[in-house]
Design brief:
The structure is a single chain. The chain is mostly helical. The chain has one domain (about 25-190). The protein has two helices and no strands. Residues about 1-5 have low confidence and may be disordered. One of its GO terms (molecular function) is translation initiation factor activity. This is Translation initiation factor 2. It comes from Sedimenticola selenatireducens. Keywords: Initiation factor, Membrane, Protein biosynthesis, Transmembrane, Transmembrane helix.
Length: about 190
């Protein structure tokens, strides 16, 4: 009998300890499962945030690439226009050299005419030479007029090219404004500090 009384409380204690152990294991398992669930949710949010960031960075990179390509094209156009202007300036410089030579020739003819007062006695003999000199001067003036017309045409070309450059620069400004629209919209949605 005494032995039975000793074993009975021991069995009850074991049962209680087993139940407590099972509750502790269940609580620990619940805690571990909730931590794993929280970690999974955080990992999903982090993955979503990283994916969204990569998409935004890709859009920004594409916008920058398009902007750089547009700027490169505009710079190439401006370079072509400047090269054409340099050619026109070279033509104008050559025409001015012709005009200078014609003016020098006219000065020589005028210098010859200035000696007429000193040679009045041989005026009749020099009249033929004077007529020839005047004809040469007339030809030189016509050449100067032709050169001036050419210079005027070149200046008109330069003016047209400058207007074209102004239009290109205005177009570039509009293109820059249009390219900046996505960034402004993005900044309105998510303002940067």
């Amino acid at each position: 009998m005494a032995e039975e009384n000793n074993t009975t409380p021991s069995s009850t204690d074991d049962t209680v300890l087993q139940q407590q152990f099972m509750r502790a294991v269940s609580s620990f398992e619940g805690i571990m499962l909730s931590q794993i669930n929280i970690k999974n949710k955080l990992a999903n949010r982090l993955n979503y945030g990283i994916g969204t960031g990569l998409v935004i960075l890709g859009l920004i990179a594409a916008s920058i690439l398009i902007l750089l390509l547009t700027l490169s094209s505009q710079i190439n156009r401006i370079s072509d226009v400047v090269t054409e202007m340099n050619r026109d300036f070279s033509v104008v410089s050559a025409r001015m050299a012709h005009i200078n030579s014609a003016v020098a020739s006219m000065e020589q003819r005028v210098a010859l005419l200035q000696g007429m007062d000193q040679h009045t006695e041989v005026m009749n003999q020099e009249m033929t030479g004077i007529a020839t000199d005047l004809e040469t001067m007339r030809t030189s003036v016509e050449q100067i007029s032709g050169h001036l017309n050419t210079v005027r045409g070149n200046v008109d070309n330069i003016s047209t090219i400058m207007n074209h450059m102004d239009n290109e620069v205005s177009g570039m400004g509009l293109e820059m404004h249009r390219m900046g629209q996505p960034a402004r919209s993005f900044n309105k949605m998510i303002p940067f500090p």
